[in-house]
Amino acid sequence: MGKDGRKSPAARTAAGGALPEAPAEPRHAANWAEVEGVYFRSTTGVGVGGMVVIEFEPLILFRDGSSYEIDDAALEDVDLAAERAATPRRFGRWTRSGDSYVLTGTGGKPQDYKLQDGSFFKAYPA
Question: Where is the region Disordered (predicted)?
């Protein structure tokens, strides 16, 4: 046993305990080849007691002019065709003119955003 009271991986294997599985290879790594950029859009709502709540939603913009409001899964783990069929409200269209972006959701109502103005931000690698 180790100092922390846990068995070593070799001891767990010898005792019949399974080692944690290695992460699976991403099934849809090619999704990233189509990405123009990853952005965050801020939205506001009303919380408990009338408190204003600001949330930041991740948004993937694809080179073909489509957009995807991604949830908790990594993009390389998402089957985009299946996701589009299951939750079409997460997909929309986008256009850009300089630093101005127009995002159009499934409702067809366009929303204008100016990059880095307080409600629309480009995501950068850590």
Answer: 1-26
Kindly report the average pLDDT of the chain as a whole number: 87
Identity (one letter) of the amino acid at 98? G
Whether 41 is in a domain gets the answer yes
In a domain? residue 39:
yes
- Split into its structural domains, the chain has a count of 1
The token pair at 65 is 């002019």
| CA pair distance 61, 64, nearest whole angstrom | 9
Residue 84 resides in a domain: yes
Domain around 41: 24-122
Residues with pLDDT less than 50, the chain: none
Give the E-state strand segments of 1-126 in sequence order.
35-46, 52-62, 66-68, 91-97, 100-104, 110-114, 120-122
Q: Answer for the pair 54, 42: CB distance below 8 angstroms, yes or no.
A: yes
pLDDT at 107: 85
Task: Please name the amino acid found at residue 30.
Answer: A
